[in-house]
Amino acid sequence: MAERSETGAIDYIGSGQPEYVWQEDPQYLDPHGRGHVASYSVQALQHIFGPYGFTVIPMYGRAWCVLIEYQSISPVRNPEELQSRIWQPVKDNVALLKSGAFGALLATVGLEADCCYTEHALLDDRTAWAQTLSKILSGGKQKWLPSARPCAIRDPLRTPRGTCVGPSLDTNQPLP
Fold first, then answer.
1. Are strands 54-58 and 10-14 parallel, antiparallel or unpaired?
2. Residues 54, 65: Cα–Cα separation, whole Å
3. Please, which residues have CB within 8 angstroms of residue 173's CB and are 6 or more apart in sequence?
């Protein structure tokens, strides 16, 4: 890959990390069905790709994939930096995505999908911080904020328009 990559090239690697296998899909490792025989952490992937000039970029909010960047000019260290990079894509890459039969669809869908996952990861981090602060301030007696968990996604083909499938919060009542 290093021989074919230009400086700053980014590749998407779909690889379920141990966190994903343990928390979201215990059946992920399935050599006979899916062909998945290993689960690599971000640190393990850095050991594999790093010697060849790649930087592993975790996809915050996605424990089932990473990005690897060849000869990274400005490494991504947190969700905010990834968000900034997503909103400032390389113009040649955007032009390539827009040049196909689908027009701007691929560029738009890719941008929006990445932003949704990154925003969700930021929300989870900030919710965890707020929960910790709430617990400290209340002396550990009551929990006023819900636990961070994956959001429920409305399936437009199966869920009637306007139906909320996510949590409903009544902020006037403490949670158990």
1. unpaired
2. 15
3. none
Q: Which residue has the tokens 């949704």?
A: 116
Q: How far apart are CA 18 and CA 100, in angstroms?
A: 36
Alpha helices in 39-104 (DSSP H): 42-49, 79-87, 91-98
pLDDT tens per residue, range 42-100:
999 999 999 999 999 888 778 888 889 899 877 787 777 877 777 777 788 788 878 88
Q: Residue 29 contacts by C-beta under 8 Å, 6 or more apart in sequence?
A: 21, 36, 37, 38, 39
Look up tokens 């990559």; give the residue. Answer: 5
Q: Treating both helix axes as pointing N-terminal to C-terminal, what angle do 105-137 and 79-87 enclose, rounded to 10 degrees?
A: 160
pTM: predicted TM-score of the whole model, two decimal places: 0.60
pLDDT given at position 126: 84
Give SS3 for 95: helix
Write out the two tokens for 21. 């296998």
* Structural contact between residues 117 and 60, judged by C-beta atoms closer than 8 angstroms: yes
The percent of residues above 90 in pLDDT, for the chain, comes to: 22
Structure tokens at 9: 């090239």
